Automatic annotation (TrEMBL):
Pfam families: MBOAT_2. Its main location: membrane. InterPro entries: Wax_synthase_dom. GO terms for cellular component: membrane. The chain crosses the membrane at residues 34-55, 67-83. It is found in: Membrane. This is Wax synthase domain-containing protein. It is a multi-pass membrane protein. Residues 286-351 form the Wax synthase domain. It comes from the Eukaryota. Keywords: Membrane, Transmembrane, Transmembrane helix.
Amino acid sequence: MASFENANHTWSNISSIGENGTNWVNPNLPEYDLGILEIPLAIVYGLVLYLCLCLHTFTPEKFVQPLLLYVICLFMIGLSSTVKSLKSRFFCIGVSVAAAVEIIRQLEAHSFLYSAKDSVIKIIAIQQMGSVVMILWEGFSCLKANSKLLPKTDPPITAPLGVHRGPINRANFAARNTASCYWDNLTPRRQWWFKTLATVLLIWAVDNTKQHLWRTRSKVVWDDMKVNQTVYFRRLLRNQVTLRETAIRAYFAFETVWGAYSWYTRLHYSCALFFVGLGIDEPEEWPPSFGDIRQAWNIRRFWSKYYDRLVYRTITGYSEMTMVCIGMGQRPYSDRKRWLLNGFIFLYSALY
């Protein structure tokens, strides 16, 4: 038990190194400049991109240049987070965005698995959009010192972006009852890590089981997707729709939602497990990619509360920046200003 408590205490000290290397638990530990981690992180990100592409191609030399450009993107984003001059930040982010545009242009010219290409392009685009909002725009920057000092009950201005790094409630293991279960003895970080890992494994198991049952039991043929079957409800009133056709339509409708949820959630949480497990990021920095499906009881709430959460924080940040630029001030907004903000959010989501 003593060794277990010592190990947990050591992990708590390591994981307590917050932004700018400040240690909030043990002041005797040295302070670290986490900006220097951007170089190895860029290499790690690049290797992930490289492996993702090479899994579906036999000519990996085509992706050497996009890989190097992505390393430059990550390095410039890390450099922009360490400089104080706004002009220097503009230069660094400008180089990063230009390199990202060139990466997307080159990837579009190559032919490999569509889901992998689409995911890589969206990851790069969302990352660049987030870097512009969080680093260049002072009012929304996650690097501002006052946002770190705000209590957890008072959300900072970065709340729409989902980047607020609130303090983690680390348990005092010395005061715990020795008879408590193993789960209660884990730190909140470890509890989050195991829950996220269980979520990834559960989604993987459900997805593979679904695909196996579909391949072995459905026996779908091309005759099930004829042109004259495009219309559904009018044919349903005429008793021209079979139960098999309805089941196939229901499956594809479900797959449209489940496919995106399964793919992006596994990809998102896999990266979260890696960086939170190393102590580089906090669990609060990796919110879910999708919202709660239980809140989507109509079409509007399906898109606003569940599906569009993937880019909602970044798009909301751009919309609030636009509101400030046209003289509407900062939030909270009410009445007509709120409707105008929703209009900008809808516009930017359509452009994206």
